[in-house]
Design a protein that fits this description.
It contains twelve helices and two strands; from the N terminus they run αααββααααααααα. The chain is mostly helical. A hairpin with a 3-residue loop joins strand 1 and strand 2.
Length: 235
């Protein structure tokens, strides 16, 4: 049996987590000014370097904004955030996505996957279809929900890569953490076979060369995920 190395969070990580929780819980409100770094360091009993580094990280995530010679303020993270912000929100919610975040991810996914399918159908080769089936088979043979979800991501990433668009696989990859959460939830509710079947259905539609049918299926599947009583998250 192998044991993993344990590591405690750094003071900067603890500082960032505490401020994220205060912002997401509403204890710190948008537009509110933070105390000066020196005061924060004294109250939280950490060095100014910890505070300064933590504020910089929170700025990158869209939680804070610093105005030179004025101060640091709580930013509207929904306007200024990144995917790192979404991950922070998930962590705050115990690793779960709220309905609003689920809806947003699925809507973006419709747009991205529709583009990938349209591009792929203009250049599909037998090798491409074979590659997609290989990725789908790894979903079927996965021995855990986690591995099945990761295999589903690999399938989707391959679809984006085969589209020939340089940016699509990069964009898909940036959503990996959030999308894995959705697929793990789906597998828990409906099983790995359902995820596999949805993958092979999409491959069949691509192989038939009718982009309108494939795109209609994508839209109907995700629409049911958003509005229906039984979510359908195809891979």
């Amino acid at each position: 049996m192998e044991f993993s190395r344990l590591s405690a969070p750094s003071l900067k990580e603890l500082f960032v987590t505490q401020l994220e929780h205060m912002i997401l819980s509403g204890k710190l409100t948008i537009g509110e000014k933070l105390p000066p770094e020196r005061q924060l360091a004294e109250v939280m009993q950490v060095s100014r370097a910890v505070v300064n580094g933590g504020i910089s990280e929170l700025e990158k995530k869209g939680f804070l904004i610093t105005k030179p010679r004025v101060g640091t303020f709580i930013a509207d993270y929904r306007r200024n955030g990144t995917l790192d912000t979404l991950i922070s929100i998930m962590n705050y919610n115990g690793g779960r996505l709220r309905d609003e975040e689920i809806r947003s991810i699925l809507e973006v996914r419709i747009a991205l996957e529709t583009l990938a399918v349209r591009l792929l159908m203009t250049r599909t080769t037998p090798e491409d279809i074979h590659s997609l089936y290989e990725k789908a088979e790894k979903i079927k043979t996965a021995d855990s929900i986690t591995k099945a979800s990761e295999a589903a991501f690999d399938f989707q990433h391959e679809l984006a890569f085969l589209s020939g668009n340089t940016l699509l696989p990069l964009i898909f990859h940036s959503f990996k953490v959030a999308v894995l959460t959705l697929w793990e939830r789906f597998c828990t509710l409906y099983g790995i076979d359902a995820l596999y079947n949805n993958s092979t259905t999409l491959i069949t539609l691509i192989h038939e060369g009718n982009p309108d049918s494939a795109i209609q299926w994508i839209n109907e599947s995700v629409d049911k995920s958003i509005h229906g009583s039984r979510p359908i998250y195809y891979s």
